[in-house]
Task: structure prediction
Amino acid sequence: MKHLLNLLAAIALLVWGTHLVRTGILRVFGANLRHMLARSIGNRYAALASGIGVTALVQSSTATSLIVSSFVGQGLLSLSLALAIMLGADIGTSLMAVLFSLDLSWLSPLFIFVGVVLFLSREDTNTGRFGRVLIGLGLMLLALRLVTESTEVLTQAPEVKVLLGSLSSDRLLEITVGTFLAVLSYSSLAIVLLTAMLAASSVIPIDVALGLVLGANLGSGLLTVLTTLRSAVEVRQVPLGNFVFKVLGIAIAAPFVGLWLRHVRPYLGDPAAVVVLYHLMFNVVVGAVFIGWTQVIARWVEKLLPKPAKTTLSGRPQHLDPSALSTPSLAISCAAREALHQADVVETMLRGMLEVIKNDDLKLGKALRKMDDEVDELYSSIKYYLTKISREALAEEESRRWTDIISFTINMEHIGDIIERVLIDIEDKKIKPGRDFSEAGMAEITELHHRLIDNLRLSMSVFLNGNVRDAQKLLEEKARFRDLEHAYATRHLERLHAKTLQSQETSSLHIDLISDLKRINSHICSVAYPILDSAGALAPNRLRPSALADKD
Result:
């Protein structure tokens, strides 16, 4: 019982080490990996090569699949090229299996020691996250050695020898078990390595081990299908296409396992080498055979999972992809795109507001007020999505971006609320009583409104690009808007003094309206503060010491 528990603990340690490496690499290189994939999609062969490189680094074809699926969901990558990347991803993870099958246990204490030192000393930096990767690598190597030692002891037990002697190859059962283990452990790499160690220790026959390897490959494809079940159709198409590749590959390879054992095994010797090289050969052959069929498989998948006429109730793509949450840097980008859509809705409301004021359009005003519900819903969705991203998994820059997105969406939500209240006031105090602003007053409102639209567009650019010069310009516009609001309020009082009838009838509404426009502008311009603060371009406070001294 003790030795069995040791084996189970070693397997758990292997899975945990794989998880540490995968998450650590994504935290350190997440954005760079996405850029590498984005630049390497000129053709299917370049896409395959990029898939090999990224997955060899991440050590998880599942993680690569989620990244690529999100690209397809955002319209940044065609389905056929995404499937080519996935063929390369499977080759990449099998290459890592070959590497880890070598006797590298002597590196385990070194990796763990250096990793712990780096992680504890610089935990919140990329250096600390790289230390996390080293810890994971060390634990994987240690786990493989423990698996070997535990299985050697277990195989000496008389009961185990009898059990092993009764085992016979059942290819379908082996594939099913391998699939289940890969899904359960969230890592086909860990299952292939475990199978190799068990075969090397004679715990399982070599032909059974190869069946488990085929199942582990199928399990990795099934895992991504299950992970993206709740995602948009475009996102789910990539895992489904990759799963089709694996099913076809296994259907072709399974009958020829015996040929591999008869003709290739004698040249390899070590059972562990037989297992991992079979894993590599399977994925290389699948990649070579199906690289020319990516467009065909893409068409099959599009027929099996057709894109709906409308992907959401509003007829637009949903950017908050749940599958991207496992890659925090990618999830941040998804949230930013959704925040920009929220700003687009706010701009539509803001533009329509002037039409309501000019044309007394009650129908348009009612439609615009309903749009505030969409703004509120977007704010809640983005906020909830961001809370599901682990802050610990974010680099310092990504953590600031997380805060910026929250701040931006809050301001857009406030603007939507202000516009809704303005529309209600326009309806109650202008349209229903049949009043009109004076010609001069309407010109002032129009001028402020045009400036608001320009400032909103500039704020969206600042939010998207983080340009310091544009952020400075935005704050300058805030100051100009404030001066205009004061000037127009003074002019309105002058018109009241001159007893202009229209100004007297709409005085309260006019003053409230230009005040509300100023508040909207303040929310618009607030996006500049985090950018300027990060660049060190903000003063500690806005008070002039000389003015305070004059009051003493």
